[in-house]
Amino acid sequence: MQAFLSSSSILANPCPRSLFPRPSTQSQLLLSSVSGARTNAAAAASARRSSGRCVATPASSSPAVAAVATDVPAKMKAWAYDEYGDTGVLKLDEAVSVPAVGDDQVLVRVAAAALNPVDSKRRMGKFKATDSPLPTVPGYDMAGVVVKVGSQVKSLKEGDEVYGHISEKVLEGPKQFGSLAEYTAVEEKLVALKPKNIDFAQAAGLPLAIETAHEGLERAGFSAGKSILVLGGAGGVGSLIIQLAKQVFGASKVAATASSPKLELLKSLGADVAIDYTKENFEDMPEKYDVVFDAVGQGDKAVKVVKEGGSVVVLTGAVTPPGFRFVVTSDGSVLAKLNPYLESGKVKPVVDPKGPFSFPQVVEAFSYLETGRATGKVVISPIP
Ligand SMILES: NC(=O)c1ccc[n+]([C@@H]2O[C@H](COP(=O)([O-])OP(=O)(O)OC[C@H]3O[C@@H](n4cnc5c(N)ncnc54)[C@H](OP(=O)(O)O)[C@@H]3O)[C@@H](O)[C@H]2O)c1
């Protein structure tokens, strides 16, 4: 309903008030850190109402502005918020300036995006001390087509189909212009070519979750022949931890937890043991594991089932020694390394069957994610 109201109010007003009406001082500071941003911001500031249409008038005739005006539109549809809060702060804005492209960046026409719990935590203001300035276009995960390349970009070209997690650091200065938009600008090193056998919606759900699973397994020193218990095996990250542990790292045994309806999924992903947390307490079971990977926030229980000298990786919640926590760093080379496993079908994307959600259904998609019951990834597709 929220999305519907936003859309219809936009339709009623062909030149709606944008959450990004003019670049604020903070926005200009952020934007001017990438090449060409000032001209793009100037073009945005010059957008004016004319004959009932929104027209972006370039402030100068510099090549950068001409490129924005001819290659891609100056304005795009994007979900955005200008204050922290629950899903009610999300607005569909049809007049957001297309982000400028830095020398080391590509501009991607986003075909699909995916939500992560960190999008919700960020929107609630939990990271406001290190967040980019408001207003924010949320979204870390995307898949789409390169439509423009920066001058220092080496391996990508226009027309390439790519996927990636667009903010190198999730919590520290994440991009103000995220992936829930028609276009997003991202560093070349953070993306990879999309695996050929999967579609944009499937690809969009992978980057942040699969990079988290991979980084956690590496940090835990996981290797062939070791055993692992995955807490939260049916979620976005857990469904990939199971598969990477088995198919990429060569686990000798994978156990995972979920509620009763999801046990078959765990087994189909490669779990040797599927533990129904509604019926059994994993921490009371006799089996011990080389690594326990906690994607739920049960660090206190996780340490009870790790072998002496083993590792406990915690993604959320309190950390109990010897457990450790990390925050994922985006890295396109990890995606490129994993592409053969995806293209061979050994590792499969898991898209929640309630989706993909359409672009106007982003509020509904967030509400669903925030139930904590998603199976695999909550995906938004197509965009727009
Ligand atoms: N530190 C980092 O870098 C990093 C990176 C990514 C994610 N995270 C964090 O890791 C957590 C998981 O992320 P995600 O994307 O995987 O979330 P998600 O997809 O929303 O996880 C939902 C899944 O969690 C399962 N679940 C909930 N309670 C459970 C329990 N007690 N035992 C077993 N499974 C349970 C649910 O299964 P049932 O319906 O069967 O309960 C559901 O399938 C989030 O808190 C996220 O913020 C941290």
TrEMBL record:
Domain Enoyl reductase (ER): 85-380
Coiled coil region boundaries: none
Listed SUPFAM superfamilies: GroES-like (SSF50129), NAD(P)-binding Rossmann-fold domains (SSF51735)
Sample GO molecular function, one term: 2-alkenal reductase (NADPH) activity
InterPro entries linked to this entry: ADH-like_N (IPR013154), AOR-like (IPR044626), ER (IPR020843), GroES-like_sf (IPR011032), NAD(P)-bd_dom_sf (IPR036291), Quin_OxRdtase/zeta-crystal_CS (IPR002364)
Keywords of this entry: NAD, Oxidoreductase
A GO biological process held by the record: response to cold
GO cellular component, one term: stromule
Family to which this protein belongs: Belongs to the zinc-containing alcohol dehydrogenase family. Quinone oxidoreductase subfamily.
PANTHER family recorded: NADPH-DEPENDENT ALKENAL/ONE OXIDOREDUCTASE, CHLOROPLASTIC, NADPH-DEPENDENT ALKENAL_ONE OXIDOREDUCTASE, CHLOROPLASTIC
Protein name in UniProt: Enoyl reductase (ER) domain-containing protein
The species this protein was found in: Brachypodium distachyon (Purple false brome)
